[in-house]
Amino acid sequence: MRSDAKTLAAAAILGLAYYAAAVTGLQWAAVGGAGSPVWPAAGVGLAGLVLGGVRLWPAIVIARLAAGLTVGSTHPLTTELVIALGNAACAALPAFALVAWFGLDRRLAAMRDILALAFAAGIGALISAGFGAGALWLSTGLGPDFALATAAFWWFGAFVGAMTLAPPILAWSDLRGDMLRDRRTRPRTPSTILHLLAVLAVTTALAVHVFLGETNREVGTWLIYPPLIWAALAFQVRGASLALVVVAGAATIGATFRARSVRSPRRYDAGPRRARPALLGRHRPRHPGPRRRRRRAPRRGRAPALAGPPDERA
Fold it and tell me: CA nearest 286: which of 301, 269, 303?
């Protein structure tokens, strides 16, 4: 009974976390509630199945279906079900391979573990992209070019989401075990927490300044490297992964705002006669030249004026 209750509790936690991440990712959906290039749910699902077991995969299916209904997806239920199964396979197969074949260390302390996680995340993203793009191609009749573009967006979003959120979740999951194994870290816990908070505060401030402020993007991005290196040297994978989540979030929000400002609707220049649509950045107003007087045609019913003095008219 206890094992069943723990399994249900773990499934509920995973489902809620995956639902929140999926709803967030679907805000960037390219095809009516699917095909998002930003998919943090992939990292949540992969880390959740590595920690809780592959048997929790139905929670991902239910959470993905609920997220699609929440955002108002326009696809049929069968298409949504295929996409949800693809997302579950995207997390279940790599998680099984990492635990059963690679023997993944959750702390990700060795390069072998990081490379294994990256390889498994890439394969899982490919599975999800195949399921999702194939389902959309069959249900909506997408063209080959658009279907390939959607699959590329899908793979990129799933891979980046897995490599962004899975490492911090896995690395911080065994914090209590590390403290029990190394009791020497207990007296330094308050100072360590303050140090970590300082690193994250500096990283957040610089990320907001670079990606959300009006700064030179080519020069400003170099400001991100010092806090990332600081976090990696001070806290290894745990600090670097948290700092990377902050930077990735700020970069995503900044890119979204800039894209929306570029794709703003047409601007209308209201003239005296009619409105003239002008694309932003491409409209150049004409400079008025010298005015020319127009000769008016004589009105009907009136005789044209005769030239000469009045004596000669008679």
Answer: 269
> Which class for 31: exposed (0-12), middle (13-18), buried (19 or more C-beta within 10 A)?
buried
3-state secondary structure 218-269: HHHHHHHHHHHHHHHHHHHHHHHHHHHHHHHHHHHHHHHHHHHHHCCCCEEE
Nearest to 40 by CA among 150, 163, 123, 133: 163
Closest by Cα among 245, 254, 243 to 211? 254
In whole angstroms, give the CA distance from residue 43 to residue 33.
19
Return per-residue pLDDT of the chain as tens, 314 residues. 667 888 899 999 999 999 999 999 988 887 766 778 889 999 999 999 999 999 999 999 999 999 999 988 888 899 999 999 999 999 999 999 999 999 898 888 889 999 999 999 999 999 999 998 888 888 877 777 888 888 888 999 999 999 999 999 999 987 665 554 555 444 457 888 899 999 999 999 999 988 887 655 666 778 888 999 999 999 989 999 999 999 999 888 888 877 666 554 443 333 333 333 333 334 444 445 555 555 555 555 555 555 555 554 44
Instruction: State which amino acid sits at residue 184.
Output: R
State phi, psi for 132 to the nearest 5 degrees: -70, -50
* Residue 276 dihedral angles phi and psi, to the nearest 5°: -115, 110
Say how far apart CA 298 and CA 21 lie, in whole Å. Answer: 76
Q: Give the C-alpha separation, 284 to 267, whole Å.
A: 13
The pTM of the whole model exceeds 0.70: yes
For the chain, percent helix, then strand, then coil, each to nearest 5?
A: 70, 5, 25
How far apart CA 156 and CA 37 sit, in angstroms, is: 6
| Contact (CB, 8 A) for 159 and 152 | no
